[in-house]
């Protein structure tokens, strides 16, 4: 029998997601590839494994916001996939094996000290994570079955011809039979409002930095000693804060009584930061659960989703189920981990809780009767908008309130007395895993899906569950105490003052304003196919070979989401006429098949692993029909 020609697959994007797909191709090959050979071309200007975001060549000041015990790139027996599970070490397990000499890895000198001292509850540098991802990639390649080979291209993919020829920035081409785009976050050109601010800055010789990935932006021109307006108080701000302070020669000192003092170098600007909430993301918790194991999902599971009848409004119809799920996990931990702080047997509370809808007076009465201390009750509205409706006489008074808020958050996240917060965190992770099931029903209204689920809810998730290490908020307080950072307020507004020729910031929290000649958008760009800046995605879009997702509404209308349009079942790219491309695929957080990060907490049945496995199996079936 004549041997089939080699099947050539181009994976554009060789970070954790691209390598995760490669690992699943390897794992599934025995059952699906047969005698067909596959040559995988990994295309990325950054090193395979870490890719762009986790590349080794970035500031050593930048850290992960996850503990090494909560990071893995390996499937385990909780992951519900059709392919074989191939377990492996989490980040901390890998470090321990390297330390013990049971796993050979050449540790670079500039992370050796971190390797030697890293504990399971530390927050590693991104450089250390980069080494873990590099090792994972090398392990995957070393263990590829006989029928799969890999070719690396340290270049940018710029276009794909109709015959699947991928043209690269170094002048070479890859003649592919299929292409997978593992695109990650979508870089974007400025939107209309940002262009207005850019034009104003150019007219008045100001500095404006539109939304972008902080580690990729050159902030060297930000002037020392001058006020700088910063819009955004999430992880992008935390990175910016470090780069413009400690990264410019300042240093943090431990105080004998606890806390930090910042010693300025004199090269720092003065950062005035504000956002919609006016506060930073919550710090990560520093303790384990103390009560009985959580049974999740409980109230936001397949059955509950199936019972929902459309059209659905996310806030009115879905959020009460999610809120009840968060509260269930929160109160399970409170009752079973801290029984001295409740007035009711947990079994009795659980039965009554299960029968009551969230947000009703009966549910409120049950919680009030069972949980005497106000601080022990879960208030999701206050969590979401802690300063909503509160106005202070001055920016100074607001700053004092924010400082107290951050100090309280740090104390709460460091004290196992409040481990119920971790229960709610675990429930949020469970909810994220159930959202694809909700989307598959097609019952959400388009506006609610785009604005409420993709917008508000995912923002709330990041704010509550994906915040910085506690040390970063301690550093924020030290910088505020040193006069290097001040807090602008909630619902921040930026105006272009033509008369003064400056940017002016105001907020809903107090009447004071701040003027500055520099404005920084401390956030990632929103997903936007119309504004995408990547040359490959732009060329595919302009050719009609890649489309923006349009979310169908119940009345037949559609609403654009900004995401790359793909099929939900097999990740195929959709063209502008709605047709799935037979040989082009895309996977990642900003496609129709939404997902979280490419690596995840162990033993959580992560969506990304399930997606990688399903995509790999589809490709192998294409290679060996």
From TrEMBL:
- Stretches assigned to the FAD-dependent urate hydroxylase HpyO/Asp monooxygenase CreE-like FAD/NAD(P)-binding domain: 10-185
**InterPro entries with a match to the protein in the record:** FAD/NAD-bd_sf, HpyO/CreE_NAD-binding, L-asp_N-monooxygenase_NS-form
Tell me the Pfam families matching this sequence. NAD_binding_9
Instruction: Tell me the domain of life.
Output: Bacteria
> What PANTHER family does the record point to?
BLR0577 PROTEIN
> What's the name of the protein?
FAD-NAD(P)-binding protein
* The organism of origin for this protein: Amycolatopsis echigonensis
